[in-house]
Design goal:
Elements: H1 16-48, H2 57-76, H3 101-108, H4 112-121, H5 134-142, H6 146-152, H7 171-200, H8 205-232
Helix pairs in contact: 1-2, 2-3, 7-8
Amino acid sequence: MPLTGRAEPTGPRGSLRQRLHATLRVVLAWLTRHRVREHLRRTERALRVADTSHLDEERHRRRMAALDALRAYRQQSAVPTNRSVPERAPQFVGADGVPCAVAAMLRADGRTELVKRVAATDNAVRLEDVEDGPLVEWLDETGLTRAEAARIQPTYPSEVQFVTDCGPVGCALARTIATVAGVGAAAVAEYVGYRLVGDRFPANPLKRRAWLAYVTVLNLLLAPLLGVVVLALFP
């Protein structure tokens, strides 16, 4: 019996800590799905407009089919989970059975056995490190380069490598919008903080200055963070 005289939560709902942990996992999973989806959208868009004049008709057709498979995978909003490697790393097939984007493209091309083989032998494979073998041969047949395949492949469970293409607007405009959002939020927070601190300590200038300095430092730290988040999630 706890010292408070209350029984610990039992049953299927579990303890408050367990429920909080489960909620955080749901939030993190949602953020991961959103970031990976945006990463794949930007990457697909960049690869579709890349110069493919060196490809013959068959390889160009297969390249477009692979990018169509990438789009279908992205629209499903499912990403693999990493439960085998302690650090952030690629997962060819996640612990939940969900394939990564490249593995999904392979499956759509009928290369299910190759997906199983890679998952069994080197599930955390980084495509930029693969120099030969069936994966490289498939990429060549599909009209994709190793660099492009590596660009498709983020690490899991949460980190995403941002691509240079920022979406429907230029990167300069996207960065400008992110900067304005960060500076604007900092200015509003500074103004509100100034008013609140002034009302809280009207007769104590020392405390008022100390709290204003604290609010200013906090805003200077949060403004760049907000700008980065806006840029990362820019549609």
